[in-house]
Amino acid sequence: MKIILRLFPVIALLLPLLIGAQAHAVTPPAATATTHPDVRVLIDISGSMKQNDPNNLRKPALELLVHLFPKDAKAGVWLFGESVDVLVPDQKITEAWRTDARKKAAQISSSSLYTNIPAALDRASAGVDKDYRTSIILLTDGMVDISKSAAENAAARQKLLTEILPRLRQANVIVHTVALSKFADRELMERLAADTGGLFAVAENADALNRIFVQALDASAPAEQVPLAGNHFLVDSSIDELTALVFHKEGKPVELISPDKKTHSFASHGDDIKWFQGTGFDLITVKKPFEGEWTAAAEMEKGSRITIVSNLSLAATRFSESLFSSDPASDLVAGLKQQGEIVVQPEFLKLVKFTATVQRREDNKQWQFDLSAANATPADGYFHNPMAMLNEPGTYDLAIDADGKTFQRSQKQTVAVRENFDVRVVATDAIPPVHRVTLFAQNPEVDAASAKVTAHIKTADGKTSEQTVAASADREWQLTLENAAKDGRIELYFDVAGNYAESSKAHKGEKFTYHTGVIAIDADGSKVIAPPQHEEPAKAPEAEKQEAAKPEEAKPKEEPAKTEEKAEEKAAEPAAEAPKKDWKKWALYGGLAIGNLLILGLGYFAYRMIMGGNKSRVLEEADDEDGEKEETGKKGDSKGKAGAEKSEKGAEKKEEVKEKRVRKQVLDLPDDAIDIDGGDDKKK
Fold first, then answer.
1. Rounded CA gap, 385 and 374, in Å?
2. Is the confidence at residue 525, as pLDDT, over 80?
3. At what angle do helices 150-159 and 117-124 cross, to 10 degrees?
């Protein structure tokens, strides 16, 4: 009876949610809509893998993926070299499928002669199911290599770009590319990812494969998580299953400590725990876990995570893994779902805090947001926050968290933001070398046919010229600089004016202008210096007219040193040309200036005499710097400061009392406040 009475406030709070679920059902924003994932893995088994993956760590990396594939997904594995072979067919995930995949992972080798990437992508992208979100994870250490003929290899690469890649885009297949060598065709790997909205990563060594594969899987099949606070994580009553992926150093055993203070290990654990040990990681699945705080006793490394199966989930925007700085930044949208329905009850939402953390890898700059600060109880259950930083190039790691005191949820994702255009420079081995400068449209939504490209060139002797550059290939414009060594250092930049394609989702047919940064090329072509690029995003016609009135702002700025030299020359010219008879005029100006200074000085002296000890703190600090300190002023300032501090302390004390009252209301809720569906079969 006591238990029923204790649960009564909870039942009263949640009854409207259970009974009126259909009445309060809200159509989620498109950004939060999800479909079941279909993940297709392509693994390179060419002979060069003997050097780049000598310990065949592709095998444990695949085993890890096999364990992590969600139950509602489809998955398949292909091996490719000179031919493409199905290792595990693309099917719905079952325990039989997982067992078969783990056994067949032993067939991964490094025995093939060639690296037929086009055939692998063509084969793996066949039979796309529209009811699934299809993603391909491509792992290779090389480039398109189908024969000993360089011409045949080039033709195969071109076919991949002009025929297979557009077909992948048309079918909405996302390609995540992983390069396992510095000799891999990085440009091709990046283009495959950028054009299809996928991620591109370089594994510095085979040991990094596990983390990169997990990151690619998270992009392909997002998993519900609970946040890790150091080595601790919170399990609530709505969680039916948890999976702890713990990356750690070799030789360091992992233990899990449950809320009942029991220690579980690989050597000693109950029947309700499945424990898999891999190279550098442990994967632990717990059925019907105890409620409360768990501890992972291990030297955990980056990439560790706790995924869960629960009927209470965090629904958040899934940004495309590949964006462009010209794209309008969408809002981050987040909410909670119970049994697939968005939670809209104010009594529940006001107890939950939604936060987001964004970090840019290139400079570690970080942004933190409290999504629930503006409106703690939105009528539709969704919290919003603008993401303006996603208009700047970089790789961003996003973490969205929901903290309901007695439960926590988390989602993570990675987004790469690129410029619309990239400039590449290649120097030939000729003497003198010939420089080939290529402007490449990274954004596939740029209408290359309508683009007008102009190169602005400045040679070492200061001569400048302009040259219209014609398209040399699909989305490429190439400029050849002859006899570069004779002329020494060359500087250039490109102007681009054109339209986005009519099929563009973000900029349907809009006009745009783009200005690259200045590219400086040394005589031998060994150095390419590219200052930060400047892009003018697509603008409304009115904005374009305003920009047209200021053409000088669109041009790259001159180098500081040269600008200073010109300024000095201009300053020197008037002095040299000044007429000798103007000395009377200059004397008059000098007298007026001296008079004004005397008036200002007398005014300041009078002000100090009148104000005395009532001078401001700003003035006092300035006087201190000059060595002028007045004791009376200090006392007056101290009294004012003490009064202000006393007032602030009083306000803080009131706020603290208010916080305690709110905290007491929250903490006085029953521990199982979110046990919406009862959870009678949970351990307690």
1. 9
2. no
3. 30
pLDDT in tens, 39-67: 999 999 999 999 999 999 999 999 999 99
3-state secondary structure of 346: helix
Q: How many residues does the chain have?
A: 684
Q: How far are the Cα atoms of 157, 275, 424, 479 from residue 428, in angstroms, in the given order? A: 21, 56, 13, 13
- The residue with greater pLDDT, 581 or 288, is 288
Which amino acid would we find at residue 43?
I
Q: Give the pLDDT band of residue 574 (cuts 50, 70, 90).
A: very low
499 within 8 A of 512, measured Cβ to Cβ: yes
Asked if residue 433 lies in contact with residue 480, where contact means CB atoms within 8 angstroms, the answer is no
DSSP for 379-403 reads TTS-EEE--GGGGSSEEEEEEEEEE
For the entire predicted model, the pTM comes to 0.73
Cα separation, 177 vs 160, in Å, equals 14
- Rg, C-alpha atoms of the chain: 33
Token pair for residue 614? Answer: 């009532």
At CB < 8 A and 24+ separation, what contacts does 269-273 make? none
Closest listed residue to residue 308, CA positions, set 243, 386, 371: 243
Q: What confidence tier does 461 reach under pLDDT thresholds 50, 70, 90?
A: confident
Evaluate whether 433 touches 184 at the Cβ level (below 8 Å): no
Average pLDDT, integer, range 507-521: 91
pLDDT reported for residue 524: 60
Structure tokens at 169: 């885009």
Output the six-digit token pair for 500. Answer: 């986005």
Specify the range with the lowest mean pLDDT, choosing from 166-170, 319-323, 519-523.
519-523
Task: Name the residue among 441, 468, 467, 406 with its Cα closest to residue 673.
Answer: 406
Cα(580)–Cα(220) distance, rounded to whole angstroms?
79
Query: Which DSSP string corresponds to 553-582?
Result: GGSPPPPHHHHHHHHHHHHHHHHHH--GGG
Cα distance between residue 469 and residue 481, in whole Å:
12
Query: Is 141 within 8 Å of 180 (Cβ atoms)?
Result: yes
Instruction: Give phi and psi for 439, each to the nearest 5.
Output: -95, 125
Token output for 419: 């410029």
Q: Hey, how many other C-beta atoms are within 10 angstroms of the C-beta on 67? A: 18
**Contact indicator for 44, 80 with CB cutoff of 8 Å:** yes
- The alpha carbon dihedral of 147, 149, 155, 160 has a sign of positive
Six-digit token pair at 580?
A: 């000798």
Instruction: Using alpha carbons, list the distances in angstroms from residue 189 to 118, 323, 425, 437, 601.
Output: 12, 16, 18, 20, 70
For Cα atoms 175, 178, 180, give the angle at the middle one, nearest 5 degrees: 155
How many CB atoms are closer than 10 A to CB 678? 10
Distance separating alpha carbons of residues 290 and 399, to the nearest angstrom? 26
- Tell whether the model's pLDDT for residue 409 goes beyond 90: yes
Average pLDDT over residues 637-659: 47
pLDDT digits (tens, 9 = 90+) for 589-600: 565 666 666 666
Average pLDDT over residues 96-122: 96
Residue 551 is classified by DSSP as G
Chain centre distance of CA 303 = 15
Tokens 């529209």 -> residue:
130
Check residue 192 and report its DSSP letter.
Answer: H
550 band by pLDDT with thresholds 50, 70 and 90:
very low
